[in-house]
Amino acid sequence: MNGVLRSEPFAPEYAARVLRDVPMSRHTSWHVGGAADFFFSPRDASDIGGFVRQLPEEIALLWIGLGSNLLVRDGGIRGAVISTHGALSSLERSSATRLRVAAGVPCARIARQCVKWGLGPAEFFAGIPGTLGGALAMNAGAWGEETWRHVLEVEVLDRHGARRTRTPADYEIGYRRVVGPADEWFLAAQLEFERKPGVNESAMRELLEKRRDTQPIGEWSCGSVFTNPPGDHAARLIESAGLKGLRIGDASVSQKHANFIINHGAARAADIEALIEHVRRTVAEVHGVELTTEVRIVGEVA
Q1: Which of 24, 90, 160, 183 has its CA 20 to 30 A from that of 247?
Q2: Of 29, 83, 224, 254, which is the active-site residue?
């Protein structure tokens, strides 16, 4: 581990529960990434607050859900990783049209539950391969809908372990972009939908079948790599630049959907990042369009 830390940086009640040198390839949908110095799986929101309060200031902090929009470089993570999936898992109906959803809840579960309750439009959450926390952090969306259109308020935790409630007015929200107060993380959100009695499981299955037909579901990817530029689609630009199937190491641009990059089993994070940069440069040369990554790239180069 890099940096100068005291021999045991955690309070006794947490020290035995913090794992050391955990390969992030186990916790990302691309199945790549070097080791995190520290990895913590909390029991609940209070447990996270206690952990964060005792965490030394010099230890950087990264929160993850399902690791579906994340590329961790081969050198790993200097600092501590908190895994919210499994800990922040509550989903409750707070009124006829409102839900309180914890940040670790998979988006697909939100979609299924809203369909059961006759609420919508929430089916789009089935097209987001991550948790609500990640969807809030990037205003994730699918099929023309976006997460923050349905947010009434969010519960957050800061670096000192303090909890507070914020509204959308506290954030600058755009397409796949959310800017808010620094060093705060989402614990939960109040979401509002409309009564939609006609929505049913078959409607959601139809959307999911369309997704399976057009995207490489079941292969190791992060979901969409690039955001769509105004008035166009990243996949169309990449495909028309002749990049479908392009391979670096064991990573390739998907033949099924050009905005997906696939790890065929033995790719390194460096292969994937090199492919991302090659695609970006080529699209800029061919089309004069600068693609912006949707995926978050973190960690150290090996």
Answers
A1: 24
A2: 224
